[in-house]
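ok trying this again, last paste got cut off
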Amino acid sequence: MTAEEEIKDSENNKEGSVPCLCSQRWILAYTGFFGVFFVYALRVNISMAMVCMVQTFSLNDTMTTLGNETEDMKCPDDNMNNPHLNEHAEFDWNKPLRSSMLASFFYGYIITQIPGGWLADRFGGKRVFGIAMAISGISNVLLPVCARLSYLSVFILRVITGLATGVTFPALQSIWGRWAPPLERSKLIAFSGIGRPFGNIGTFATSGILCEYGFDNGWGSIFYLSGGLTCLWVISWFILTSDSPATHPRISQSEKDYIVSKIEYNTSERSETVPWMKIFTSPVVWACLTAHVCNNWTNYTLLTSLPAFMKEVLKFDIKENGVWSAIPYICQATSAIIAGYFADFLRTRKLLSTTSTRRLCQLTGFLGAGACLIVTGFTPCEHRYLAVAFLSLAVMFTGFSQAGYICNHVDFAPKYAGVIYGLTNMAGTVPGMVAPIVAGALTPNVSSGELQTWARDIQEEIVGTVDDSKYDATVDNELRTEFRDTVISFKYLSILKE
């Protein structure tokens, strides 16, 4: 055996003695998973809560849907058979206001991306992540009380939640730049990253039940539980994690030596200067930024609009809504885990280079998701279970991004991963601000196959353009309810005559 082979054999034996699943880097992945879980729970809980906290039939919504009665008859609304659904509704917010509320989170989220990455690279991601989540949890606990005071307070609290959680992913990327050995990056980052779909799964699956049976009129319990559990998680985060292997009090010497020897730079040193010009002129940064924007347009559209799509287009009732909305994200979590392990397998066996592996995963994710979403859009609501199947496949393909552009930030610049991820995620947040508003503008009458205002008959247009402000000022709640019931009766009687 040559000296070089002896050294290589010694290194392999050393790596074999390093703990894996119970190691500190994997404990960081487990804790990070739950952290990302709560980031997304706090982000999407209002999407589900709004289904049951806002009145189903406001005057404007009832009038503007008269042109779509044949669509409703083909796809009976399960919510019509639920006598308890409207008992929990306290607010009469129109669709543009609801869409703006969903988008308000991102007004704050976009601001703190780059500052969050810089703070994490400079002072450590542990404190940045932990403090941000504490602020977010408290904001959610306060939301039910504030919502009953003014809808403006909902905007303020959602912006605060966005500002706080805006630093979380750059901070986590900064931590992985110091903790993830190159050939384990896909697995570690993908595992912590599947907190995204599991956060959606947990929120969607439980929110429908909480809406129906929870305390504080049902919908309030969604915010109390998600915010309160987040605050408990913050305590465990500060106890279990550390900014780098060198500062961890419980890490074994073998694991510390293994990680430090594999990371491409000295993890104990902090970045005092950032090469901004080189970052902004780097083609790989722009490639990641483009992929980030494209991926997030799909994800944010589904995150904010999926519960409403399940209810208003596919006609699932509130309890089914949560379950069916969760299924696509179960598929996404599964594909993300598979993609992470498969990517590291290809790289470890030298079957593909890191660059080719990232390209393969990202290309698979984009082409598969795009094709399935197109098919979903052409699936009629009478085949709603088929629509859910294609929608689930589309979201499943987006899970391949966990082994694509998301890992790429740590691949080519681990020392500045926080700042670079903050930069690309800032651009990727724009779809979160725009997509809910675009979806609301394209579907003003909450149905598939929208009949546009300019295409209506004159009589339909007259009936469909009622000024909410006039009725709000002159008609009390009892008369509004009576008028609503009359319109609904007229709607179904007219269909029976046909």
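PB: full thing came through this time. Residues 1-16, 57-73, 458-476, 486-498 have pLDDT under 50 and may be disordered.
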